[in-house]
Design a protein that fits this description.
Number of helices: 13
Largest sheet: 8 strands, parallel
Low-confidence stretches: none
Helix content: 40-55%
Strand content: 5-15%
Number of strands: 8
Mean pLDDT: 93
Order of helices and strands: HHHHEHEHEHEHHEHEHEHEH
Shape: globular
Strand order of the largest sheet: 7-6-5-4-3-2-1-8
């Protein structure tokens, strides 16, 4: 299968100039907002049986990027989070580990050491997260520092101001530069969909990110009022589906922020299954940016196993 490294050559003509890129992005089909929201709502009403629910809960746990992105983060907090990622439920060793632990660049080395010997990845936000308001050389230094400390994945934010001003080539070139600085680390490109105003802009941002070499496209930082929604995630899933149909390149999707319970997580998994299919039902291609979600998944998992709802006091606090 072709990789994201070949995306730039596949769209060489469309990215040759600002005008060419604008024509391509504005030539994408317009989004039927009513139809999109109706389909997302309809898929959200699907029910699943108990055995399928048990599978879905374990799958959702395995897709979580367990995240701490606070000014008060300490090495101790990061080590505790890493321990929870490796062994989410100490009372049940059959519980799968999460996909990754996501931290600021200065905490990457701590997380890497704590996760040594496990399959849990270290993800790091970069590029002046969450606002993205910094010069390119600062963003690239931020990225290189995280990679040098051992990050397996980089979550970058786009310059929303440049995107909304129509400076698409600037955003494209910035993503390309961060992709290069990321080296072997997989790159997740965050759009902050709550600030993009329209579904058309989300579709354009999705294609822009994929054309520039994103390994994942991600809805949001979790730091604004509107984060992941079924509708904006469905739109991004449609974009990666269409992108693979055109290029043969598969791109991951990560909804982040606002997904807090098992019922909501399962709705998102239904969206994945019905829109892009089983190829994306794996943590290599789909992630949840969440922390509080894990506790609810663990409580629901315990209830399925024991018939009793244990309550929040029986799971560790992030």
């Amino acid at each position: 299968m072709p990789t994201t490294a070949t995306a730039a050559s596949a769209f060489a003509d469309a990215t040759a100039s600002d005008g060419a890129l604008r024509r391509f992005l504005h030539g994408l089909p317009g989004v039927d907002a009513v139809g999109l929201e109706a389909r997302a709502a309809s898929l959200g009403t699907r029910s699943i049986k108990t055995t399928a629910k048990a599978y879905a809960i374990d799958l959702a746990i395995s897709m979580i990027d367990l995240t701490t992105l606070e000014g008060a983060d300490t090495p101790g907090k990061v080590r505790a989070l890493a321990a929870k990622a490796v062994n989410p439920d100490p009372t049940d060793r059959t519980t799968p580990p999460t996909a990754a632990v996501c931290v600021y660049p200065d905490m990457v080395a701590t997380a890497k050491a704590a996760l040594k010997g496990s399959d849990v990845k270290v993800a790091s936000v970069a590029t002046a997260f969450p606002a993205g308001r910094a010069a390119l050389d600062v963003k690239l230094a931020d990225t290189r520092d995280a990679v040098a400390a051992g990050a397996d994945e980089i979550d970058m934010v786009i310059d929303r101001g440049a995107f909304l001003a129509g400076k698409y080539l600037k955003v494209y070139e910035e993503i390309r530069a961060v992709k290069e600085a990321s080296g072997a680390a997989r790159l997740k490109v965050i759009f902050e969909t709550g600030e993009l105003s329209t579904y058309d802009n989300i579709r354009r941002a999705s294609w822009l990110g994929m054309m520039a070499g994103a390994d994942f496209i991600k809805t949001s930082t979790g730091k604004v009022a509107v984060n992941a929604t079924p509708a904006n995630t469905l739109l991004m899933l449609e974009a990666v589906r269409d992108f693979r149909a055109q290029t043969g390149i598969q791109i991951g999707v990560k909804p982040a922020g606002g997904i807090r319970n098992t019922k909501e997580a399962i709705k998102f998994l239904v969206l994945v299954n019905e829109t892009v299919g089983e190829d994306w039902l794996d943590n290599h291609w789909f992630r949840f940016g969440a922390s509080s979600l894990l506790n609810d998944l663990l409580m629901q998992r315990q209830k399925l196993a024991t018939g009793r709802y244990s309550g929040p006091d029986y799971v560790t606090v992030d």
